Each structure stands twice: as C-alpha cells, then as structure tokens.
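Task: sequence design from structure.
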C-alpha cells in the first residue's frame, strides 16, 4: 500500500506517500523494543518509512524517507522531488532541500545550493525556475548558497546539520 502518513488513507496512482507492507516475510517487531514495534505497525501493516509511488503498471518508485518530509500549511512535500528540479537549474552542482520555521505555515521549503565552479546562481531566478516545474507550495521560498554540503563518513548529506541553525532554541524541530 502507498499511504498518506497524515491520515493513513491510500493515495492515488502516481501520488507520493509512505509504503506500508504486510506479508509472511515481514518482521514481527524490533528485538527488545516494544515501543518502537508498536509505532512501526498499523493494523498489521509495517510502516516502512520509505516514501514513493506506484505507477499505473504497478511499478514501485522509492523517492525519499518520510522523516525528511516537509509539512507546510498541511501539505506534504518530499525534498527529493524538489531537489530533482533544483539540480536541473543551470550552474547548480549540488542541492539539498530542508524545512525551516515559518510563522504561518509551520515549515517553509528552503534550498541549499552548491554552485558549479565559476557559476553564479541567482536565488530568485532559481525559485522562478522551480515554479515552472512544481506546484507552487512545493517550491523553495528561499535559497542559500554553500561551498559544500555537510556529509557523514559515507558521503550522505547531513540534513540535520543544515536544519539545526534554523531550529535552534525552538521546542520543536518541525
């Protein structure tokens, strides 16, 4: 099943949601972690934490992790979808999309961009570029330029490090 994590309802074909699975091969729980097991299952379905969609032919496309989802004004925004558009903008070498505090919508979409060598990236033009390719609520409201993205030892971008300065001093980080 592909489910809207907000309400547990199945989403339409090609609509992004969380993958829930149930089979004889699905784990029965986390070893010695009953609280985590209880959170991971809904009515016998294992909530994978993986986000993506199924197309009309039944092919599965995994695109993100639910925990990286940005919720802005009640809309679910998957950063990987926005990043795929931002990276297509001329002069962008790397991009990471995060949610930052917004007084009205809870979170706002922010793109952190590493320009290609000797390239100039105009934040307003990049936002306009995304508006031609995405629903308006998914588009970045702001763009930060960076020399590099923070990474762990395996090369994975550390989104929590990018988010931290924006959420510092707040009770919640969403």
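Answer:
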């Amino acid at each position: 099943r592909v489910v809207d994590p907000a309400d547990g309802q199945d989403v339409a074909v090609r609509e992004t949601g969380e993958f829930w699975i149930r089979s004889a091969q699905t784990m029965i729980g986390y070893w010695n972690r009953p609280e985590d097991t209880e959170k991971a299952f809904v009515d016998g379905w294992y909530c994978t934490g993986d986000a993506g969609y199924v197309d009309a032919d039944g092919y599965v496309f995994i695109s993100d992790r639910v925990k990286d989802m940005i919720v802005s004004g009640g809309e679910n925004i998957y950063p990987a979808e926005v990043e795929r558009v931002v990276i297509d903008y001329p002069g962008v070498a790397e991009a990471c999309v995060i949610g930052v505090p917004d007084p009205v919508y809870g979170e706002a979409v922010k793109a952190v961009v590493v320009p290609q060598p000797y390239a100039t990236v105009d934040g307003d033009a990049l936002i306009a570029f995304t508006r031609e390719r995405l629903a308006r609520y998914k588009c970045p409201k702001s763009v930060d330029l960076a020399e590099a993205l923070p990474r762990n030892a395996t090369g994975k971008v550390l989104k929590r490090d990018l988010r931290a300065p924006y959420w510092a001093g707040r009770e919640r980080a969403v």
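The beta strands are 2-3, 17-21, 41-42, 45-54, 60-65, 70-72, 75-77, 92-102, 106-115, 142-145.
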